[in-house]
Design a protein that fits this description.
94 residues; alpha+beta; 3 helices; 3 strands; globular
Length: 94
């Protein structure tokens, strides 16, 4: 890892975010594998700032989708809509 500080690291299907609650004393990354973990990271303020929140929400869903198979496009679409609605509750004011 470089010495440059990066808030979001994405290597498909792996998302890692800098836990901003620990700054400036420690640099620790949190693994985000699904929408639930993304929601937690946003709600607990491990990630901050509207652009970062949007990116973490989108990539947490992308990481989740990489491990799923759906029987139809309609099923996939329903799952995506449900998870987006859930993620939008993580920090409603951001």
């Amino acid at each position: 890892m470089s010495s440059r500080l990066q808030a979001i690291l994405w290597v498909r299907p792996r998302l890692r975010i800098l836990n901003q609650l620990l700054l400036p004393h420690r640099r620790e990354y949190v693994e985000i594998n699904n929408s639930r973990a993304g929601h937690h990271a946003i709600a607990s303020m491990q990630t901050r700032g509207a652009p970062a929140i949007a990116i973490v929400a989108a990539l947490s869903l992308a990481a989740e989708l990489c491990g799923l198979e759906f029987s139809s496009a309609a099923t996939a679409q329903a799952h995506i809509r449900q998870q987006l609605a859930y993620l939008s509750t993580s920090r409603p004011t951001a």
